[in-house]
Specification:
9 strands; globular; Metal Binding Protein, Guanine Nucleotide Exchange Factor, Chain A; mainly beta
């Protein structure tokens, strides 16, 4: 996957305030407030920053967490994972594999077949419905 790098000021000009705070500064949206947490529209969820395909709606499920949740990304290359020790916790941060946009975190309490729960901020995504 081709890596996309831009200065922070360029991202600030391209994204709205919430998208910038979440995607470029590692913030989060409040539970049950994001555009996609309850969406059931079939399609592919892309990175709002660079347009890379990240998650398929076929892997989306209701985790009850208040954020869109998926049991797997569209490919291993679609995301990167980093250890996150912020807020006094140890978590695994998930970023876009192309532009390193902060997406959310992955937890080992998801459904089969992977047992993973990718808990993703709606503001970091753009749903492209299936035709």
């Amino acid at each position: 996957m081709e890596k996309i790098e831009k200065p922070l000021d360029s991202w600030r000009e391209e994204l709205d305030e919430q998208q910038f705070h979440i995607c470029r500064l590692g913030g989060t949206e409040r539970a049950f407030t994001g555009e996609y947490y309850a969406t059931k529209t079939p399609g592919i969820y892309h990175c709002v920053c660079c347009g890379a395909a990240l998650f398929d709606s076929d892997a989306k499920y209701d985790s009850g967490s208040g954020w869109p949740s998926y049991f797997q990304p569209v490919s291993k290359e679609a995301i990167t994972e980093y250890e996150d020790f912020s807020h006094g916790m140890h978590r695994i941060e998930v970023r876009c594999g192309a532009c390193e946009s902060h997406l959310g975190h992955v937890f080992p309490d998801g459904p089969r077949p992977t047992g993973l729960r990718y808990c993703i901020n709606s503001a970091s995504l753009k749903l492209v419905p299936r035709a």
